[in-house]
Write a structure and sequence with these properties.
Blueprint (H helix, E strand, L loop, with lengths): L2 E3 L8 H9 L4 E4 L5 H14 L4 E6 L5 H11 L3 E5 L7 H6 L3 E6 L2 H9 L5 E4 L5 E2 L5 H8 L8 E4 L5 H10 L3 E4 L1 H4 L8 H9 L5 E7 L2 E6 L22 H20 L4
Parallel strand pairs: 1-9, 2-3, 3-4, 4-5, 5-6, 6-8, 8-9
Antiparallel strand pairs: 7-11, 10-11
Helix pairs in contact: 1-2, 2-3, 7-10
C-alpha cells in the first residue's frame, strides 16, 4: 500500500513499525536523539517481528548524527526518512550501504535540490502535520511541488488521517502518503493512553501551532497539561484506537470508495 508511517519521536518504536509493515505499509522507527545502541536494539527487535521492509526516521540535527548514520549503514535498514537538517551531504553514505533515502521537505527549492542530489523519493509535509511544521499547507505544497518533481516519487504528509485524504493525494499526482497521527492511535503504539484519549476526544478546533524550534512552530493539542501531545490537525476522524491491521484495511477501503465516487463524475 502507498502508505508510510510517520517517524514520531519516542513513540514510533519497533512494535509499531513492525505492525505497520506487516499490515502492508512501510513502518518507521523514530531515532530522535536516542543513543545509537538504543536505535540499533529497536531495529533488531523490529526484524524479529517482521520480514517486511521498514525504515528509520533520522533527525539530522541530533548531536550524535555521525554515529547514528554509521550504525544504520551497519544494520542496513531498507530506507531512511531525513528531517531537521540538510539531507544532501548524507545521501552518498546511505546509498553506499544500499539504503534508500527519503528526505522530508517543506518547499519547492529544497525539493528540487533533493531531486538533483539523487534521493530515492521525498515527503512533502504541510503545516497541518503534528510536531515541527513548515509554512505551507498540504494543498499548497501539492500544487507547488508535484508538477515540479518528475524523476522521483513524492509522498504527501500533513493532515492525512483517512482514506479520503489518501485518495486526494493520489489524484493530485502523489505516489503515496505519510501518516503519523492515525498510527499514533493504534494498539501497537506505545504512546501514553491519556495522550491517546485526549486525541480521541479532540475536535477540529483543538489544534494549535505553538512554541518555536529551529524558527518553526510545533503543532500539538491545545490546553494539555504536563506535557505536549503532538498530533495533526485533522482531528475529527481520529476517534478510535485500533490494531494497525484494522486501521490499514479501513484506510484502503475508504480510498477505494472515494476514487470510485470520483470516477462516477462526468466532466
Amino acid at each position: 500500500y502507498p502508505i508510510i508511517q510517520g517517524g514520531m519521536a519516542w513513540v514510533a518504536e519497533h512494535k509499531l513499525a513492525a505492525a505497520v509493515s506487516n499490515a502492508g505499509g512501510l513502518g518507521i522507527i523514530g531515532a530522535a536523539s536516542a543513543p545509537p545502541e538504543v536505535v540499533r536494539e529497536e531495529i533488531r527487535k523490529c526484524k524479529e517481528l517482521t520480514d517486511k521492509p521498514f525504515g528509520v526516521n533520522v533527525m539530522l540535527m541530533a548531536p550524535n548524527i555521525a554515529e547514528i548514520i554509521a550504525m544504520l549503514c551497519e544494520e542496513k535498514v531498507a530506507f531512511v526518512t531525513l528531517g531537521a537538517g540538510n539531507p544532501v551531504p548524507h545521501i552518498p553514505a546511505f546509498h553506499a550501504a544500499g539504503i534508500k533515502v527519503i528526505p522530508v521537505v517543506p518547499n519547492v527549492k529544497l525539493a528540487k535540490r533533493i531531486e538533483a542530489a539523487g534521493a530515492d523519493a521525498m515527503v512533502i509535509e504541510g503545516m497541518e502535520a503534528g510536531g515541527h511544521i513548515g509554512k505551507q499547507t498540504t494543498m499548497a505544497l501539492m500544487e507547488n511541488v508535484l508538477p515540479q518533481i518528475k524523476s522521483v516519487p513524492v509522498l504527501v504528509a500533513g493532515g492525512i488521517s483517512d482514506g479520503r485524504a489518501l485518495a486526494a493525494a493520489l489524484l493530485m499526482g502523489a505516489a503515496g502518503v505519510q501518516m503519523g497521527s492515525r498510527f499514533l492511535l493504534t494498539e501497537e503504539c506505545p504512546a501514553n493512553p491519556v495522550a491517546k484519549e485526549a486525541i480521541v476526544k479532540a475536535t477540529d478546533t483543538d489544534s494549535v501551532a505553538t512554541g518555536y524550534s529551529r524558527n518553526l512552530g510545533v503543532r500539538c493539542l491545545s490546553n494539555v497539561t504536563n506535557g505536549t501531545v503532538m498530533c495533526g490537525q485533522s482531528l475529527n476522524v481520529l476517534n478510535d484506537i485500533l490494531p494497525c491491521k484494522d486501521v490499514m484495511e479501513r484506510i484502503i477501503a475508504e480510498a477505494k470508495e472515494a476514487i470510485a465516487n470520483v470516477q462516477k463524475i462526468e466532466l
